[in-house]
Amino acid sequence: MTIDSGATAWVIVATALVLFMTPGLAFFYGGMVRRKNVLGMLMQNVFSMGLVSVLWAAVGFSLAFGGNNRFIGNFDFAWMRGIAKADSLPGYTGAFALVIPPLLFMAYQMMFAVITPALITGATADRLKFSAYAILIGVWSVIVYPIIAHWVFSPTGWLFKRGALDFAGGAVVHINAGAAALAVVLIIGVRRSYGQETMPPHNLPFTILGTGILWFGWIGFNAGSALAANGLAVQAIVNTHLAAAAAMLGWLVVEKAVAGHATTLGAASGAVAGLVAITPCAGFVGGMAPVYIGLLAGVGCYAALSLKKKFRFDDSLDVIAVHLVGGILGSLLLGLFADKGVNALGADGLFLGGGLRLLGEQGLAVIVTFGFSFTVTYVVATILDRTIGLRVADDDELVGLDQSQHAETAYQ
Fold this sequence. Notes:
64% helix
């Protein structure tokens, strides 16, 4: 294979940017919980960087990108066997040929695998037992994430072969994590005193700091997925930033009209909603499409906040409204706005004369991803709940996760 030094340098930087997103997510979530649970939230996110990285190197990468089977990878690269000396990866030939070392591709994709289960923690905040969380994301990172990554990301995967597009993880990351979060929330139940007392964020400056880190890191998340230092990466950067900006504005306008105030929490949530929605689209749309996608995501995700009241589930930090709904919106809107003039390896959406085919494939990917992730996660979470228990004891929840799970205190 031919290694492009510029592309390699850019993806090395992008890998670091995506890694930085996980501590950014920790601050984003950590600021929104009550002060007695902030270290518990930070720990759950940072812990993913340790456990999932090891599992990815051991089996996850091989299951996601090994072999030519349409539905699941194999163990050719298990325990890092042969990756460092590999000339290519299955399916990455012709127009999809890598110009970076396969080992770097493994490292870059590892950062996606790390942050995806961490997203779940926002839905289960304040009540998830740490030992149960550790087992849950460990199992999930072996039997859920790599399989969906193989279907959608790998050129040998069946959804990829059908023509579904997901530039950087609208389905693989956000719908996947959002569906899993919903499954766990339905089993773990609501927080103590939920609906009876207010549970305001304890440190919104933390949340704004986390938003900034996420926005910054998302440049590597989306533009790095071009796997080259080229015009497509530049387009992805522009798309990513514009979508976040437009979604923030859309969220705040609706929030002001409905609730009477434009809040800092709304600005943060709106920006992240736009980043989520543009993720599958970043390398396939151009022009003003990211602005339209961002606006629709800001308005749509804000509207989705009502779902937890309507269906009576406790999604503590709105993972389902932002990541699940945002991922679905982005994946489907790609079927409308995709432009083959931006990326010849993509397709034209409905608005660019491509008809309904791409929209249909995007819809199939959404349904399959949600169904698989929700079902398997529900089974795993149910087993954990009936054995070691998913949530902390009532007294431990009252004391807070910082003390009960980690014997630490964030603030004296």
